[in-house]
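R.M. (postdoc): so does anyone remember the format we settled on? I'll just put the structure tokens first.
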């Protein structure tokens, strides 16, 4: 046998160890309902975040490289734990029926964001509505901060495709929209999210501002809203291009429903309804695509989304279109409407934590 060169042998052993770690220890249960995705941790361990000095729009190859190396919340955080083995809620069928079993799965190419370096200057944002349930600034909002839907949702619509980013930042075509703004500092693992973020001649204003520490499981105060009605962060739930290109989403998704209940369940902190029907979803309610749903007939992008819905599920985050998930408005992501609509509400089930589950601290 010809001896292998030492450098090649070391490289082969490294690749082998990574593969074995991902295959032999795909998951490890630490307590009831908490499964640590070891394959995700292994990937993050061997992915180095490239340095950057200027704000990066989410829809760039430079941002893809940074996002691929960013650990969003600790491993045991509810956004990151698989729920494919969680029990089905006793009223699952009734809740699915109340929402609409025949209604299709839909998506919004809505939640855009920008990555900022640690050196990004922090500025004041005037809060005009929910200051008492907001985290105090200043905030690292860059001049090129994206507003919900930019760019794909605007560029694909003949009535808005000629708008510029500055137009959208200033409220065109209308101020009567959620206008979420999301800023991520990946080096410091900090997240800044705004509701109705708008640029004016006097500076930026917003109705609400939330700050999340992506290195911590710490919750914002109980009873507080965020830029979403459930009080949840949006960024950890977004379906991104780098994930679809990699062929794997490693977190729960964000979902909206038209009719919700006057209640919330962990990790949500807030509700936005007067309705008390126990078969309406609470904010924070978790839904999972059934294990027996066949994903093989779908395109690679949609199959990746559906497999994530089987493993991690989706959390009720806000009032809106029934069975709608959030996807980055990235023009590199193909239009997914026709395929996703083949999935119906009846293909989902409501899941609940097993006995003994305790939220992480």
């Amino acid at each position: 046998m010809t001896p292998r060169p030492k450098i090649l042998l070391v490289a082969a052993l490294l690749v082998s160890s990574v593969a074995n770690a991902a295959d032999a220890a795909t998951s490890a249960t630490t307590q009831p309902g908490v499964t640590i995705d070891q394959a995700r941790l292994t990937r993050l361990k061997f992915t180095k975040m490239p340095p950057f000095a200027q704000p990066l729009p989410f829809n760039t190859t430079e941002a893809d490289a940074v996002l691929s190396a960013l650990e969003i919340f600790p491993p045991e955080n509810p956004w990151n734990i698989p729920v494919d083995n969680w029990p089905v809620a006793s009223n699952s069928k009734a809740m699915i029926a109340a929402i609409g079993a025949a209604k299709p799965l839909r998506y919004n190419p809505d939640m855009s964001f920008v990555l900022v370096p640690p050196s990004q200057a922090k500025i004041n944002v005037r809060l005009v509505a929910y200051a008492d349930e907001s985290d105090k600034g200043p905030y690292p909002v860059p001049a090129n901060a994206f507003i919900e839907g930019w760019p794909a949702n605007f560029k694909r619509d003949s009535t808005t495709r000629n708008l510029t980013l500055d137009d959208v930042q200033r409220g065109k075509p209308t101020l009567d929209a959620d206008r979420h703004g999301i800023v991520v500092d990946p080096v410091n693992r900090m997240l800044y999210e705004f509701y109705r973020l708008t640029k004016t001649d006097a500076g930026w204003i917003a109705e609400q501002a939330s700050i999340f520490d992506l290195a911590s499981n710490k919750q914002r105060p109980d009873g507080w809203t965020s830029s979403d009605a459930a009080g949840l962060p949006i960024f950890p739930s977004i379906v991104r291009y780098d994930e679809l290109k990699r062929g794997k989403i490693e977190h729960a998704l964000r979902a909206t429903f038209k009719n919700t209940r006057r209640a919330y369940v962990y990790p949500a902190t807030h509700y936005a309804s007067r309705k008390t029907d126990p078969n309406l979803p609470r904010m924070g309610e978790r839904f999972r695509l059934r294990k027996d749903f066949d994903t093989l007939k779908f395109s690679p992008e949609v199959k990746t989304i559906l497999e994530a819905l089987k493993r991690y599920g989706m959390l009720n985050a806000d009032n809106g279109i029934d069975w709608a998930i959030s996807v980055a408005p990235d023009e590199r992501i193909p239009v997914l409407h026709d395929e996703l609509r083949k999935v119906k509400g009846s293909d989902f089930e409501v899941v609940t934590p097993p006995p003994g589950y305790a939220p992480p601290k």
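R.M.: ...and that's the designed sequence above, right after the tokens. Also worth knowing: Confidence is low (pLDDT under 50) at residues 1-25. The first helix runs from residue 6 to 24.
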